[in-house]
Design brief:
homodimer; 327 residues; alpha/beta; Isopropylmalate Dehydrogenase; 2 domains; 6-stranded mixed β-sheet; 5-stranded mixed β-sheet; 11 strands; 42% helix
Chain lengths: 327, 327
């Protein structure tokens, strides 16, 4: 399998994409990585390591899509960026998928424009993993579609079910509609219509609320991208905030150094479910290809895990299964 | 000052409203409480305690608005409920305010219908306190208006500023628009229009994101009631979830009993900012009166604090100041 990796994306390029790629070829057999980025920059980073030269190739793409660039940057102003290059190579069949910790909007735009949509899909979506007492679950949409409609929501749920079943190993993923109350008939007219559309899904459990996310009462929480994005970023901020709050209490406490380090250790372990690094990223669901996006601050481990996600999507023929479930 | 308390609202009536009222007259001078609820039920609870009989009166209201009743229940089906009775007495000048841990929708509907809106206000709103590293801040709207418009958002922000300044003691409350990115021009067309409306406020700091809430980057986070409600309930669920996660780690750990109880103590102290009991509840902003709503699970302390909120609103002439800031 050949996976292209954005070596000019995220907050820590080329270092983290290079380290992630090196870790990936060490861990996964029959994998070749194409590192897409400014050639000298990437080669310079690679030269610090020894590795099987046959399994990592550098593909030159001199232009850089900044994290603050507009979504159309990779397509219009910077046609020689790593995103445009990597997605185009994927379109041409030169690799099985592309992973990037770079500009999400630009990657989504390039993926939709160059790869196109899957047959029957009205709008591709970004899902996000969200921590819970039972491990990660999905919130869809996480920011690609700030306004959603009933038919879109139904497709998001069906695509999410394929992903949850195939990649996350959840046998019959429960779908819940994030709403302001549990009873049917709660929410806006639009939410009531979305509820009606989701009823077609056998494992639709109805409305769920904010308090149900971390339980988790559903495996797939359907909402609009405005809410999904706010909730996603709130969740990402939580471990850091809790560490500060606990740190403040420890400073005022009279515990011994041993007790304090025990608290820190327990806290770190307890917050592990909130560690997005373990999953790396998610593919855009509904695009005609495998395009995985991760957090800008992705570590080498996160990028390695994103590569794994792309490999899993290809091996499980996610897109064929999505088409089958939709049509 | 006379405050009416819903003695038939919340998950633990009449006990908690009665205990909250008793605590309030003990703590606050020159306060008389009207306990509104089924007379025998309330008197039976009161008879378990000794107190200054002149400062607590029972007002009979035989009908009960259940937490699951529709918003119109208190007005149409149950005209002799504590909510209808208490709000009507407030309208007639028999008390300075009404506080309830009961059905929020019913209380809002009764408040809007019986008390009416403040001059110049297009839609009253529910704000919620949200924890942060610097104490509680406000999210508006928290569920009263699932869809908002630019003029509503502007009024919410102005009302929130009056409340934050007068009651929370924040000198120049910063207003932020909860959005999916920081840059101006982010979000839906509606969000861009709301951004434009909020620009009239000198201390508007622009768009803020989910990750900015707990910092807090703003003092008042403006959003629609769908998001506000989801984020509110997610936040409320958090301490319980964290206690479970930490408990699981402690069970697997090899710490001594002393170390484990130290962890529990530090955790409890660290999560204190998430304890909504300390603030009790908030008034509906924009109604022509003082109608304070709290969590269904409110403890006696929470209800005592809600009574304090109502007293503060009256003493600070919140409604006069809101009218002045809007018009």
């Amino acid at each position: 399998m050949i996976i292209a990796v954005d070596a000019a994306g995220g907050d820590h390029y080329p270092k983290n994409p290079v380290l992630g790629a090196l870790a990936a070829i060490k861990e996964f057999e029959r994998l070749t990585i194409l590192l897409v980025g400014p050639k000298k920059l990437v080669q310079n980073e690679l030269s610090k390591h020894s590795f099987d030269q046959d399994r990592i190739q550098v593909v030159d793409s001199p232009e850089i899509v900044e994290m603050t660039d507009s979504a159309s940057a990779a397509l219009k102003q910077k046609p020689n960026s790593s995103i445009a290059k990597g997605i185009s190579m994927h379109k041409q069949g030169q690799c099985h998928g592309f992973v990037s910790a770079g500009n999400t909007g630009a990657l989504l735009a390039a993926s939709m424009f160059i790869l196109g949509k899957l047959e029957g899909i009205s709008r591709p979506t970004i899902a996000t993993y969200y921590p819970s007492l039972e491990g990660f679950r999905l919130i869809i949409d996480a920011g690609a579609n700030l306004e959603i409609k009933p038919d879109m929501a139904l497709q998001f749920a069906l695509m999410g079910q394929v992903y949850a079943k195939e990649i996350m190993g959840i046998e019959q993923p429960r779908v819940g509609l994030l709403n302001v109350g549990e009873e049917e008939g709660k929410g806006t007219e639009l939410l009531k219509e979305i509820y009606g559309a989701l009823k077609q899904i056998p494992s639709f459990i109805g409305n769920v609320e904010g308090r149900d996310i971390l339980i988790p009462k559903a495996d797939i929480f359907i909402t609009d991208g405005y809410i999904g994005n706010v909730v996603l970023k709130l969740g990402e901020s939580l471990p850091g905030i809790l560490k500060i709050l606990v740190g403040q209490q420890l400073q005022q406490s009279t515990g011994t150094p041993e007790m304090m380090s025990f608290v820190q250790q327990i806290l770190t372990e307890s917050l592990a479910p909130f560690d997005y690094e373990r999953v790396g990223g998610l593919p855009f669901l509904g695009v005609n290809g495998t395009s995985v996006v991760g957090h800008g601050g992705s570590s080498p481990t996160a990028i390695k895990n994103m590569i794994k996600v792309a490999m899993d999507c290809v091996e499980h023929s996610i897109n064929d299964k999505i088409i089958a479930s939709i049509n």
